[in-house]
TrEMBL record:
It catalyses: L-methionyl-[protein] + a quinone + H2O = L-methionyl-(S)-S-oxide-[protein] + a quinol; L-methionyl-[protein] + a quinone + H2O = L-methionyl-(R)-S-oxide-[protein] + a quinol. Its EC number is 1.8.5.-. Its cofactor is Mo-molybdopterin. NCBIfam families: PRK05363.1. GO terms for biological process: protein repair. Pfam families: Oxidored_molyb. Binds 1 Mo-molybdopterin (Mo-MPT) cofactor per subunit. This is Protein-methionine-sulfoxide reductase catalytic subunit MsrP. One of its GO terms (molecular function) is oxidoreductase activity, acting on a sulfur group of donors, quinone or similar compound as acceptor.
Length: 313
């Protein structure tokens, strides 16, 4: 079915391949398709999205890999655990609270979040574990949401929190707790407002599967994947850098910025190359060079002008 929404970008701004990639995921959503069905992997509903100029023309990671090779410790620490253990998680109904240093603190219901104009954006994603994927996200700029709550002049950072539901998230209820809950992340306000930073509600043209962070998660493509906090229930604007889960767990290994940087190694492994998931050959010839800022330097390097990126890793 053709999209009922006209792409917001002139056709002249995108290459034919890019346009083709985008067209493939244009799925007209009848109003009813946003009424989410029962929880579990089968609940994915079609999402209507327009093309975005912030999109790549690299081969997409197979959807099966993107939805079965995950990090979501609330469902277990194995890559297959999130897909295997998240069927009882209920992503609807959902509310996300925005508070802190804003003029208009408020809650957003899921229907309101899905009503933001959605775009499909094909982003290169780089995990700190030195693997990468190319994902067609569906989402909207975080800046659009922040505008609605009117950040105060004193706001300098944005803090995010994941839901805590041990009854639905087995990784939060077992004897071994790998992390402190809630999972927390943070960005500088200018990073949060950058046009590449999105809140995602879907991938491959459908609503997010539970294992990928349903119903709403952060995507910041120039940073390591752990910054992409999932299943967000709270966003707070703050004056000082907020605590971040992996930074708290291992401050020498995971910095606040976490910008993809092939020149700054993790203390236990190199960050110079990466394995593109789905291409085979985990340790072999298929490794490719990691790009500064994950290939988004042109867009974002100026955010860090004058900063020592070794000290601010
Ligand atoms: N968010 C929460 N709440 N819990 C997590 O364990 N893992 C992070 C990030 N967001 C994580 C999370 C890490 S380490 C990565 S690499 C990405 O999610 C993985 O996202 P994906 O499974 O959609 O590829």
């Amino acid at each position: 079915m053709p999209s009922t929404r006209v792409p917001k970008i002139a056709a002249t701004d995108i290459t034919p391949e890019r346009f083709f990639l985008n067209r493939r995921s244009f799925i007209a959503a009848a109003a009813g398709s946003l009424a989410l069905g029962p929880p579990g992997a089968s609940r994915a509903a079609a999402l209507e999205a327009s093309a975005s100029k912030f999109t790549l023309d690299e081969a997409l990671t197979p959807e099966k890999d993107a939805t079965t090779y995950n990090n979501f410790y609330e469902f277990g620490t194995g890559k297959g655990d999130p897909a295997a253990n998240s069927a009882n998680f209920k992503p609807a109904p959902w509310t996300m609270k925005i508070d802190g240093l804003v003029g208009k603190p408020r809650e957003f219901g899921l229907e309101e979040l899905l009503a933001f104009p959605l775009e499909e954006r094909i982003y290169r994603m780089r995990c700190v574990e030195a693997w990468s994927m190319v994902i067609p996200w569906v989402g909207f700029p975080l800046a659009a949401l922040l505008d609605k709550v009117e950040p105060l002049g004193s706001a300098k950072y944005v803090a995010f929190e994941t839901v805590v539901r041990p009854e639905e998230m087995p990784g939060q209820s077992g004897y071994f707790q790998p992390l402190e809950w809630p999972y927390r992340e943070g960005l500088r306000l200018d990073e949060a407002r950058h046009p590449l930073t999105i809140l995602s509600v879907g991938l491959y043209g459908k609503t997010l599967p539970n294992q990928n962070g349903a119903p709403i998660r952060l995507v910041v493509p120039w940073k390591y994947g752990f910054k992409g906090i999932k299943s967000i229930v709270r966003i707070s604007l703050t004056e000082t850098p907020p605590p971040c889960t992996w930074n708290l767990a291992g401050p020498n290994e995971y910095g606040f910025y976490a910008n993809v940087n092939p020149d700054v190694d993790h203390p236990r492994w190199s960050q110079a190359t990466e394995n593109r998931i789905g291409e085979g050959g985990f340790f072999g010839a298929n490794r490719r060079d990691t790009l500064p800022f994950n290939g988004y330097a042109e867009e974002v390097a100026s955010l860090y002008a004058g900063m020592d990126l070794r000290a601010n890793f």
